[in-house]
Amino acid sequence: MGETTSRAAKSAEHDVVITGGGAAGLSAALVLGRARRRVAVVDGGQPRNALAEHMQGFLSRDGLPPSELLEIGCAEVAEYGVEFVDGQVVHIERGGNGFSVRLADGAVLSARRLVVATGLRDELPEIPGVAERWGRDLLHCPYCHGYEVRDRAIGVLGTGPAAVHQALLLRQWSDDVVLFPQALALTDDEREQLAACGVHLIEGQVKQLVVADDRLRGIELIEGHVAPRDVAFVFPRMLPRDALLTELGCEKDEKGWVVTDRTGCTSVPGVWAVGNVADPRALVITAAGMGAAAAFAINSDLLDEDVARAVDDHRGSEAESLTSVR
């Protein structure tokens, strides 16, 4: 993340502390830094897309390795005086006009506003080979990876209802798509849709991914049959890294995701959530946009507070002047 400090100055108050230094967090930091706000970004250096070789769908950065995007972003943000803190936020307390942000190493940052951009984690099925091939030739997002595996033999692991949509979507990139439904109870309508769109079904329980020469070669079923496949897709269970938001009492929806408005503002005043911690569907470019939108709203919110404080101070000064004249 470029130049970082393990301990921030405990006495300095920040306008905004951002936890999470991915695209969403850095984008928020860039806008706020340019607005001359005092900003700290806390990040532990474990991005969700660390295993991905390239990042697609980001205008002007299509095909760039995610690590390079972060490196460029950190360098840009640092130009505006944003402080980087290498660490992990473990606890946040509300108090006074802001928040106390405690790090794992004991350091405490004070902040008037918070941006939580901690992302999510992917819970993968416990199938041998899945964890080892994840992010390589076992993928999850057709929009992120479909073009790169176009016209190849694709397998879709049926680990949840979303697998049907995923298989149908992947037909846009390949004529050879096979869905392994496993325990999925496909409806008659779904079977008809799959057949009509040319998605083949191979019934049976998947035993493992077959790998040779560090490449996926096929998908093996328990009964021993191996279906040759060049690449596989799976829709993992996506779990938000939202412990900090939960601790603060942020409202969640019926699916367990934090509720925000269009700017990322949560139900807790002064707290914004952006990126995959709030929206599992957000691509990198989407997350960056969410960070920028939050930054505009936060700066406006801080401005309102600054103006109100200035007015109070002004009135106090005028009152003192009148008293001294008398």
From TrEMBL:
Q: Which Pfam families match?
A: Pyr_redox_2
Query: Where are the bilayer-spanning segments?
Result: none
Question: What keywords is this UniProt entry annotated with?
Answer: Flavoprotein, Oxidoreductase
GO molecular function, one example? thioredoxin-disulfide reductase (NADPH) activity
Name the catalysed reactions.
[thioredoxin]-dithiol + NADP(+) = [thioredoxin]-disulfide + NADPH + H(+)
Q: Which residues form the FAD/NAD(P)-binding domain?
A: 14-290
| Gene3D superfamilies, sorted | FAD/NAD(P)-binding domain
Q: Which domain of life is it from?
A: Bacteria
Q: What's the protein here called?
A: Thioredoxin reductase
Say which species the protein is native to: Saccharopolyspora antimicrobica
